[in-house]
């Protein structure tokens, strides 16, 4: 009898296959993404960089089910987003994806605790006390739970947004310029938190950024140029990222 061993098949957290996105029609057509294929393993931190207009936001929107590609497929785990109707996508985004934006998007009339647990309430799910405690401890806000967002600093508000993104145990967290509105020191704390979320909590994070220092916190950086993948850098450093960006046509980043 022959024995065969198979490598375990691990579904990636996110997979894009031949994704293209065209805006407009006729002479006004813009090819924002051209045949992009990529896989993100679970528990990894990936930064997306590229010159202005290279397609970073379009990539994030297609990957997170905020927009549908013109052609190609997108999978979040085993769910094919590119086949879903808007109502299904709304549920998937709420229950399986965490979002962190530059403008924290907290509800001003809700406390920190109510903001963090809002996605669960919207989904009609119970709050898992153990996870809530872990998330609140991780983001360092245990003594601020009953405050309103307006009583917090920008960095603290972004940490509330990160806690809210984690509370559903999403398949992936998508961050769009999460440190864009923060000073250097506060930005570093938020980036260290995202790093911790990946290394110690096993989350998968995809972050769009213009900042080579922010991107250097990731495991790898994916570069876009003119809507196409233009390389990947593992174990990135700010200097190597800036050099690559200059090569792609973005002047003087550091
Ligand atoms: N809704 C839209 N309608 C038409 N064209 C669009 C739309 N959204 C984006 N584009 C175009 O698609 C291309 C890619 O845009 P995208 O916003 O994805 O780039 P980006 O890399 O995120 O840019 P930036 O760094 O400046 O934010 C650009 O040429 C942009 O003008």
From TrEMBL:
CDD domains for this protein: ABC_MJ0796_LolCDE_FtsE (cd03255)
Any single GO CC term annotated in Swiss-Prot or TrEMBL for this entry: membrane protein complex
UniProt KW keywords: ATP-binding, Nucleotide-binding, Transport
Domain ABC transporter residue range list: 14-251
UniProt feature coiled coil, ranges: none
Protein name: Putative ABC transport system ATP-binding protein
Domain of life: Bacteria
GO molecular function: ATP binding; ATP hydrolysis activity; transmembrane transporter activity
SMART domains in the record: AAA
Pfam families xref list: ABC_tran (PF00005)
């Amino acid at each position: 009898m022959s024995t065969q061993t198979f490598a375990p098949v691990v579904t990636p957290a996110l997979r894009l296959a031949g994704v293209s996105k065209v805006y407009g029609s006729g002479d006004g057509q813009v090819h924002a993404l051209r045949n992009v294929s990529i896989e993100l393993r679970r528990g990894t931190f990936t930064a997306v960089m590229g010159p202005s207009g290279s397609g970073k936001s379009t990539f994030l929107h297609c990957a997170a089910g905020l927009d549908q590609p013109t052609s190609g497929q997108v999978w979040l785990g085993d769910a094919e987003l590119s086949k879903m109707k808007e109502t299904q996508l709304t549920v998937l985004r709420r229950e399986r994806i965490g979002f962190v934006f530059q403008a924290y998007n907290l509800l001003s009339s809700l406390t920190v605790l109510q903001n963090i647990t809002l996605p669960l309430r919207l989904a009609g799910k119970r709050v898992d006390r153990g996870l809530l405690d872990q998330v609140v401890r991780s983001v360092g806000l245990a003594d601020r739970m009953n405050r309103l967002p307006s009583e917090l600093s920008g960095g603290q508000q972004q940490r509330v947004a990160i806690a809210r993104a984690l509370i559903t145990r999403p398949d992936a967290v998508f961050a769009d310029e999460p440190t864009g509105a923060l000073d250097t020191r506060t930005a570093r704390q938020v980036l260290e938190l995202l790093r911790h979320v990946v290394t110690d909590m096993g989350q998968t994070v995809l972050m769009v950024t213009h900042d080579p220092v922010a991107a250097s916190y990731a495991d790898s950086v994916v570069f876009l140029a003119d809507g196409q993948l233009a390389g990947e850098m593992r174990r990135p450093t700010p200097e190597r990222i800036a050099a690559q960006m200059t090569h792609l046509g973005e002047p003087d980043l550091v």
